[in-house]
Each structure stands twice: as structure tokens, then as C-alpha cells.
Amino acid sequence: MMSVSIVENGIRAFGRTWTFAQDFAPCLVYRNGEVLPFGKAKDIRTAPFHNGLGHGVRVSYQDFEGHGDLHFETECLISGTDGHVDMTLVTFFDGKGDLAEIRYPAPFTADREEDYAVLNTMQGQLLPAHWPEAVCEKLPFDGQMCSEAAYMPWWGEVAQDGAYMAIVQSPWDTKYTVSHPACGPTRIYARHLPSLGKMRYARTVSYYFFPAGTDYVALCKAYRRLADETGKPVTLREKAAENPNVEKLIGCCVMHVDGKTHVTKDSRYYHADAPEKNDRLTPFSHWEERVRMLRHLGVEQLYLHQDGWGQPGYDNQHPDYLPPCRELGGWEGMKSLSDTMQELGYLFGIHDQYRDYYLDAPTYDPDHACRNPDGSIYGHSIWAGGKQNYLCAILAPAYVKRNFEQLLDHGISLQATYLDVFTCNEADECDNPRHRMTRKDCLQARASCFHYLTAHKIVPSSEEVNDWAMDAQVFCHWAPYLTGSAIPVPLFNLVYHDCVMIPWKMGSDDWGIPKGTSGFLHCLLNGGMGYMSESLEGEALAENIRQYRVIRELAHHVAMEKMVSHAFLCPDRTRQETVFSDGTRVTVNFADSTYQIRYPEDP
Question: Does residue 120 share a domain with residue 212?
């Protein structure tokens, strides 16, 4: 076992001392703006300890002026098993004040020219210590983990003489901050959130240390080994054994299509100056003609994702979305499209939503909306349907079953379904005593919706991907790069490529595709799924189909394989290479839009 020790203002491991940032003070932050540093306690007591799991130091903090009985403790435990370090915060008495977050522990410093941070912002990025631009100034969802802000609940830093990985053990109740002004330095730290208004349980950040020569790929592999120990990942092979439609999805291109669009006057997207843009219709029969044409052109595998299929229109009146829109063809038209997809050997799925809870839904009941601890109900009017709350996720599985039983009873054959935002947006809380829900409960309820679909042989999908869903989610809408990333790298795929399929937009200017690069090449590099255009014609469509055929062949080799490595092959990072566990090697050149795929059987 490696030698790890607590030293003054840091941790020493593999011969390197990881020093806590001196300009950072662990603190409590209150909703009124007050910041209370730990050091303001008048009674601070430090004591070493040793137990059956290891040894370390505990520090007790109490007697804060104006904060009543506030009392908490930090513990730094060096594991006697593998040498990792758990830094834990335990609150005994909350004291006075409405707590917003606790910032602990202090960030480590890795400030030399060659040092870099490893960040799971969406698909992932590397952030050199002296990167010339400010990065991550505003993370999605204010840095809340289990969302688009962090597909995986860890970060790391790599130096020439060692590396570390920090894993947040309760990510559903944690935000994080990445501070990197132009030219650095980089500081990364956790912000622990109350659960239903209280710090109800201990919060731990676990640090794993590595020797010189460790890089970002090694950190990803170390995290996967730890994830495997918890049983979190379920591979695509295992998911296919439970649901045969998983295997049928391999090699499919993805085509998202519109149905009914209706933008209400309350919506942020309402076009007051061009009202004709607020309502559009594309009948089911139109897409039947399109898929028949694609089959004639040689598209052998396709998954059609139908938006706006319900009577209210896209993003309207959820969860009361049935019946299928009459103007599109109603039940008969939707079944005809479903039957046509089966006839052609294609897969059919729908967009659905069980978080946005619209006030004009026929069965809307404020008692089913997420309630804050102060009794208020959050609402907004951003999306097409206008005024909404959030549906308490504890109730979502019952609504999913209510709706899908009707679809199945009407003979609508679904091979897959997209439950919007579940793996993209942050977890919710609800303090309604009839269905009280923590953020962890919320994620478990979302996963239950996925499991219901799997039980009916419907492949579950959602907007992006997330670590917490890897036991159930099979594919997504996309999982691209955060806009403004320093050095984009496929960290998520390095960990979970064999557990989930990720589609990529094909263009160079699409959202999430790094500037100056091709989405098609990113798709190949990541062994992903590709999109098929719903509207291109002529040579543009022919090129899309040519791309699909390359992606399809690659997918049949690597979709269920691990991504075992990623490497930059030149200083400007335009040439990159990935290798998969079957031996397939993919090399792309973003500078001249070329690629090479070498399969194990190739000479």
C-alpha cells in the first residue's frame, strides 16, 4: 500500500505534497449572503484518532458568535486498506440562519506550467494550470452535480510528480466550483447543500492519489474500477440480455422529427411579431414517406424519435399529453407510422416529459408539484407550454405507467422512448409530506421510470448522460462538450463507453461540437451513433448516408466495447486517436477532416 500522511496544510503521497490553497477558507454560506469561515469558531479542538478503518485527525468547531448552538466536525481519515483519504464534514447542531451551502474541503494547488485539471463538465475537458482564457466562470445549473454540469461526480489534477482524483460521495446534494481566471490558477472545490433545509448527514469527498506518470486516461480507468465495486455500471451487453431491442439499436442512425408545435403567449419563445411561427404541423404520414424513401436509398438501420406527437403540441400540458394529435393523424396515424417502422425493420420511439408540470394540464394539481421547505412552489414560463411547476419525481413513475399503458393498449409499438431532461437537469426536492422527496430520492424515482420502460422492452433514453443512471439508461440525445471548454476530451466515454450509446450531431457548427472540428469525426473518435437529417435532399443527403454507413460499421464493432485509451498525436491536438477493447483503433484529423479506422482483423 502506498504511503500517505497528513502534513502541515496538506497531504503527502507518492513523494509529493498536495498543498491546500492558502487563499481559501472553508466556510458556511447563508442565504442572506453571510459567509462564516470555520476559523471564526471560538472553540476549535483537534484530536488524532485510530480505528478499524484507518487513522487521521478530527477537528471540532463550535461557539460561533450569533449562531446559537452551531457545532460541526471535520474528519480526515487515511484508509488503512488502500491509502485513500476521506475528508468528511459532520454537522451536530445547525445553529441559527438559513444555510445555503458549506464549502469544504479547501482545494489543492497544482500551479506549475505542466499541471492540468481533469474536469467532468459534460463529456469532459482538460484545463492546463496556465490556460490563457477564463474557463468555467458559469457552470450549467450553478455547478450542481448529477446534472449537465458534471456527468460524473469527480475531478482530478495531474502533475509531473503525481496526480489525485476527488470523488464526491453524495453528489446529489453537492455543487462544485471551478475557478480559473485567465492564465490561472485553477481552484476546484465542493459546495455541500442542505437536504430539505438541513445538513442531515455526513458529507465526504474521497481523495485517491497516484504516482508520477499518471494521466487523465489512468484517472478514468481508476474511477471505473471503483464504480464497478459499487455495482453502478450495467454494460450494454447486460442491458441487451434483458431487452433485445438494445442490440437492435446498435448501428442505427437517429432521426428526430417534428409533429405539432404550439407556443403559448406565456412562453419566453412566443413570437409576438411573427405569430405564424408559433404553430406548425407535420403529419405522421409525412414521416412514413420519409422513412420509406430512406429505406429505398439504402439506410438499413434507423431510429425515429417523434417530437410533438400529443394533442397539446411539443412541450405543452405534460404529463397530460395524450391522445396523439388529431391534426397529425390521431391514434390511427400514429399506429400507421409505428407499423411502417416495424415493416421497414426500423425502430420507433417518442419524446415524453415527466418533470415540467404545466399549469394548464387537464389534471394539474398543485399538490403534485415540488414544494420548497418554506411552502412555496417554484415556477417559470420558459418553454413552449408556458406556465409550469416541476412534477414531484416520486409521482413520475405512476404517471409514466398511466400514459404508456394507454399507448400499448392502442397497439402503438415502441422500441425506445426519450424521457426528457432526467439525465441533464439537476435533481429536485419536495417537502410536501404526502410525497416528501430528497434529491437522492428524485434520482431513484427517475431511474424507476427507466426500469419501467425496460420491463416493457422499451429502450430508455434521456437528454444527456449521467453517472447515476448507468444501471438503466441505454442511449441519449447527445453528450457533447461544454461550450468554451479548454481542451475537450471524452472522459465520460473513457469510463462508460460500454454502458451507453451516444449520438453526435454531424456538422461543424452544432451546439456542443468544439469550434473548428467536425461532429462526424467526433462521432467516429467516440464510437458513437450518428444523426440522419430529416430534411436534406440530393447530394447533401447522399453524403449524410455515406457518413451513416461508416458509423454503422464501426458501431457493430465497438458499441459494446470499452474505450481503453485516448491520445493527442500532435502538439496542436488536431490529430487524435482512440482505441477500443476489441482492438479497433480510430484516428481522426480535425485539420483536414480525414480519418482512419483499423479493425483487429485488418492486415
Answer: yes
For 120-231, strand residue ranges (E) read: 125-128, 154-159, 162-168, 174-179, 187-192, 203-210
Q: Does residue 93 fall inside a structural domain?
A: yes
- Crossing angle for the helix pair 330-344 and 284-296, to the nearest 10 degrees: 10
Final residue in a domain of this structure, among 229, 261, 288? 229
Nearby residues of 172 by Cβ (< 8 Å), 6 or more positions away: 145, 146, 427, 438, 439, 440, 442, 443, 468
d(CA 306, CA 291): 12
> pLDDT band for position 41 (50/70/90)?
very high
SS (H, E, C) 524-550: HHCCCEEECCCCCCHHHHHHHHHHHHH
Q: Measure the CA angle with vertex 469, ends 467 and 474; round to 5°.
A: 110
d(CA 361, CA 529) in angstroms, rounded, equals 35
d(CA 407, CA 362): 18
**Residue that has been written with the C-alpha cell 433485445 in this structure:** 244
* Helix locations, 231-329, DSSP H: 236-242, 245-249, 284-296
Q: Each residue of 184-212: pLDDT tens digit? A: 999 999 999 999 999 999 999 999 999 99
pLDDT digits (tens, 9 = 90+) for 546-585: 999 999 999 999 999 999 999 999 999 999 999 999 999 9
Report yes or no: 556 and 251 within 8 Å, Cβ to Cβ. yes
Residue type, 134: A
- Are residues 195 and 258 both part of a single domain? no
Q: Are residues 286 and 181 in the same domain?
A: no
Specify the pairing of strand 187-192 against strand 85-93. Answer: unpaired
Q: H-helix or E-strand containing 31? A: none
User: Are residue 133 and residue 281 in the same domain, yes or no?
Assistant: no
Residues 28 and 147 in one domain: yes
Q: Looking at the domain assignment, is residue 234 inside a domain?
A: no
What range does the domain containing 317 cover? 244-473
- Output the DSSP codes for 377-402: ---B--STT-SEEEB-GGGHHHHHHH
Share of the chain above pLDDT 70, in %: 100
Instruction: Kindly indicate the confidence band of residue 2, based on its pLDDT and cuts at 50, 70 and 90.
Output: low
Asked whether the beta carbons of 119 and 125 are under 8 A apart, the reply is: yes
Is the separation of the CB atoms in 416 and 459 below 8 Å?
yes
Q: Does 171 reside within a domain?
A: yes
109/9 Cα distance (integer angstroms)? 11
Q: How many separate domains does the chain show?
A: 3
Q: Residues 125, 488: contact at Cβ < 8 Å?
A: yes
Task: Kindly state whether residues 290 and 192 are assigned to the same domain.
Answer: no
Is residue 473 within 8 Å of 462, Cβ to Cβ? yes
Under a CB-based contact definition with an 8 Å cutoff, are residues 309 and 259 in contact? yes
Which residues, 6+ apart, have CB-to-CB distance to 441 below 8 Å? Answer: 393, 394
Tens digit of pLDDT for each residue in 470-492? Answer: 999 999 999 999 999 999 999 99
Q: How far apart are the first and last CA of the chain?
A: 43
| CB 480 within 8 Å of CB 505 | yes
Residue type, 119: L
In the block, cell 438499413 appears at: 300
Looking up residue 36, the CATH number of its domain turns out to be 2.70.98
